[in-house]
Design goal:
Elements (H helix, E strand, L loop, with lengths): L8 H9 L5 H19 L3 H10 L2 E6 L2 E6 L11 E4 L3 E4 L6 E2 L6 H5 L3 E7 L3 E8 L2 E6 L6 H10 L3 H6 L3 E8 L17 E9 L8 H11 L6 E6 L3 H14 L4 E5 L8 E4 L1 H13 L6 H17 L4 H27 L5 E7 L3 H13 L4 E7 L2 E7 L1 H11 L5
Parallel strand pairs: 5-13
Antiparallel strand pairs: 1-2, 2-3, 3-4, 6-11, 6-12, 7-8, 7-9, 9-10, 12-13, 14-16, 15-16
Helix pairs in contact: 9-10, 9-11
The structure holds adenosine-5'-triphosphate and magnesium ion.
Adenosine-5'-triphosphate binds next to strand 6.
Length: about 400
């Protein structure tokens, strides 16, 4: 079936507003949408058309060139997928969701076969780095080009040789550290800001390289990978992982991702008790800004982990105490703050060279729907304050006699 893309409103508007879309380029884009996109993505034309109508596929102009963003997944195409129209048409697929297991046994044995690789799961935010034309871009999870991340990624990593040799590969990794505007977490080996690669994938198909191939490339280009705890036989893995996860939890680190060495079976994630408590305590600092599912799922993770670890009464009590403290202490502290007239706020620090850079980053946050203000800018560091409005309003209301 052929679709008349010209009758599609959002596309007409885009062509109308896109300053770089000369006639020749329009023909290329229309031809691409008409004939090629369905084949590349293996998604039916009607579905794509419907997605464009609904704004799920959004057209935008990026550095003077047209591009297209998938705001939700369509068929097998992940949300966060981007398509750039340059000399070449480049498809950067979204990073696939990683399913979680609550039990190591029997899930690992059922899900994987033979051997598994245990990698550390770093707590930061997901970044895909790719070369597009003569630029290197860093994309956040949902397919936004974050100006701060792009600048930092090329500062932290020397990527020119890698992309010269491998223009069709995408580096997937975690931006981590304390001066991190999205997920701030202290790692002793990282400090302010760092990057750890966990996957290398192909453009368009999103096929990941095997763990060996990935490691070979990381060594060759001197790129930092996540920590690897080892390769285990799937039958011995649960006992080994229990030890690893205890160690990780004590070091206040997040967890592990378990992978098939060939990357043909989807990976699974498994997290530490410390990470569950940390997230619960963060969420209860702003209790009315998080959904109830957020709390519930983390408590469930604790229940299954305590069971599988075969904890004795004392260990279980210690876990229960930590969990209870993670709920109550932060919440009471926020209520106290709001009672004394303050707002529920969260500060984050970023390294920036100029006030313009901070403004640019704030604009990016506002476009994402996050309300934040500059609290301070000094010595190339900006403190950005995020206001948690629902928590502030709801607590104020309850303190003033509102009913729950
Ligand atoms: P999702 O499950 O959809 O990815 P989420 O926000 O719930 O989203 P997490 O619970 O943090 O994500 O777990 C998945 C994320 O973990 C990945 O998207 C990636 O950013 C991060 N991650 C950290 N270390 C690794 C690793 N070694 N391998 C794969 N992913 C990793
Ligand atoms: Mg994460």
């Amino acid at each position: 079936m052929k679709i008349d893309w010209r009758r599609n409103n959002s596309l007409t508007n885009f062509f109308f507003n896109c300053s770089s879309c000369d006639l020749e380029l329009r023909v290329v884009i229309e031809d691409f949408l008409d004939k090629k996109l369905q084949n590349i993505l293996n998604v039916k034309a009607e579905k794509l058309n419907e997605a464009i109508e609904k704004g799920i596929i959004k057209f935008f102009e990026f550095h003077g060139h047209p591009a297209l963003q998938f705001k939700k997944g369509i068929g097998k195409i992940e949300d966060g997928t981007l398509i750039y129209f340059r000399d070449k048409i480049e498809v950067i697929r979204g990073f696939p969701k990683i399913r979680r297991t609550l039990m190591l046994f029997p899930t690992l044995k059922n899900h994987f076969k033979g051997k598994i690789v245990v990698e550390e799961k770093m707590n930061g935010y997901n970044v895909r780095i790719a070369s597009i034309g003569d630029e290197i871009v860093a994309l956040t999870r949902r397919g936004y080009m974050c100006p701060y991340t792009t600048k930092k990624a090329v500062e932290i990593l020397d990527l020119s040789q890698f992309f010269n040799d491998n223009p069709d590969l995408v580096i997937c990794g975690e931006m981590v550290g304390t001066n991190n505007p999205y997920v701030s977490h202290y790692y002793e080996e990282i400090g302010n800001l760092g990057f750890r690669v966990f996957d290398i994938r192909k453009k368009t198909s999103n096929d990941p390289l095997s763990i060996n191939k990935k490691q070979e490339i990381l060594n060759k280009y001197n790129l930092p990978g996540v920590r690897v705890f080892g390769t285990f036989n799937v039958n011995e893995a649960p006992e080994k992982i229990k030890e690893v996860i205890k160690e990780i939890s004590e070091a206040k680190r997040e967890g592990i991702v378990i992978k098939d060495p060939d990357m043909e079976i989807l990976p699974l994630k498994y997290t530490s008790s410390c990470a569950h408590d940390y997230e619960i305590s963060y969420a209860f600092t702003y209790p009315f800004d998080f959904g109830k599912d957020f709390f519930f799922s983390r408590v469930i993770r604790e229940g299954f982990q305590a069971f599988e670890m075969k904890e004795n009464d004392e260990e279980l009590r210690e876990r229960a105490l930590r969990l209870g403290e993670s709920i109550l202490l932060p919440m009471v502290s926020t209520i106290k703050n709001v009672a004394s007239g303050k707002q529920a706020t969260e500060d984050m620090t970023i390294d920036v060279a100029s006030p313009e850079e901070v403004e640019e980053f704030l604009r990016h946050l506002h476009n994402l729907g996050v309300y934040a203000v500059i609290e301070k800018f000094e010595d190339n560091k900006a403190i950005i304050r995020r206001i948690h409005q629902s928590t502030t309003d709801k607590i104020t209301n309850l303190l003033n006699g509102g009913l729950y």
